[in-house]
Amino acid sequence: MSVTKVQEICPYTGPPTPPVSGGLGKRHLQVFLLFLGMTISYGLRVSMSVAIVAMTDNSTIDSNFEIFKWDSSIKSMVLSSFFWGYTVTQIPAGYVAGIWSAQRLVSIGIFFCGLLTLLIPIVSSHGGWIAACICRVGMGLCQGCLLPSTQTLLAKWVPPNERARLGTFAYAGGQFGTVVTMPISGFLAGSSIGWPSIFYIFGLIALIWSIAFYYMGFDSPVLHPSISQSEKLYIQGSLGEMTEKTKLDKSETPWKQIFTSIPMWALIIVHCGQNWGYWMLLTEMPSYMKNILKFNIEESGVTSALPYLAMWLLSFPASWLSDFALKKGASIGTTRKVSNTIAHWGPGLALLGLCFVPTDLNNKTIPVLILVISVGLNAGSLCGFQINHIDLSPNYAGTMMSITNCIASVIAIIAPIIVGEIVRDETDQHSWHIVFYISTFIYFAGNLIFIIFGRAEIQWWNDPIEVKARKEIKRQNNMEMNEKKIEK
After folding, report:
1. Residue among 259, 444, 418, 427 nearest 351 (CA)
2. Positive or negative: CA dihedral 181, 187, 189, 194
3. Which of 29, 250, 271, 329 gives 20 to 30 Å between its CA and that of 75?
4. Is 366 helix (H, G, I), strand (E, B) or coil?
């Protein structure tokens, strides 16, 4: 295959030099709305981690509210069931977000996710843990559009030189949602209105946001009715405008090229490592706090949120330093890999250290501090592998995110189930240590593969016209070979 032939068919002159756009603009409002959407979506996910402790422990809540006799295996099943549905809709959602409307898709998805959240107390009371799982599966199906749509919208709204800061801010909504949800859930579970109020309040907030974003969100600067001309030119000039032909051909997603890309597989593996560590801690930390560190339900909710508060706060200097390094001449690839190494190897070492720290009643501070460090350093992943999807392919960032998140979501399903099988007795400290050893290995191995095989250059298959040109060249070459065979 001749690169020269491709260049003759599809010459590339590079994006135009963008004008400068300072101050706050419509792109910042769109990113802020995405931040709120991420906050609320993660709140819907993680509220169950705290609520399930109150739902199954007669000593933590008022006797007026129903208590369910669910053992550790059933609780792990309920916690992981969200990802059964979440995994299924990832790739379809990424495709739909690319060819239809990412903004409408995520608005509708979160709306129905909010409705299902409102139903959890009712269906759990009448149908038990199976009904709760069905509701959680439905929530996952609805939220499958979240990351692909967010990635698609960021690729259209955020200039490359602002990508780490604004992209990290949007994704940090997940950590902020965790930070506010856990203590609020703990407070509600221990209050007179009880654990059902957790689902009613967060479900209602999701409905309000989805309606607001449906009318205030836009798929691109071109579609925004009140964006200034200078900001529109700045964004389009930074990203490089696609021709009409490119837009039409974009529906022909280069699936084969994406799935045979080595940097793409590096992203898949590192994303799997991220999901194991992040969701293992997120779903199991309230139980660890209660059974090993002996916190009550209100204390468990607040203390479990501290690591995610650290992660949210650290995301801002991490993203700023990432963009600063780029301005000083560091390569995008090096910046992404350094950020992700801190995000994965740092927590891996912290979890390893947690296995050697005593957790008696008089020594709660050090284990909590280690957990704060473990999760807090994970902030680097936001400007590490997460943003790397857009680096590799701005046109197909949403599709790529849907693929990596789909496969990684399988790990999020497996993690709580494996933890439930290992930690049969939630008061057994040694069982928790086995979980931490496994998590340390996964963190180290996944990031090592990203360091070796990860890339940050735009891949050739990002351009639909070039993909089509290469296919045409390959077809012509095959025809020539067949003709030569016939002549012989």
Report:
1. 444
2. negative
3. 271
4. helix
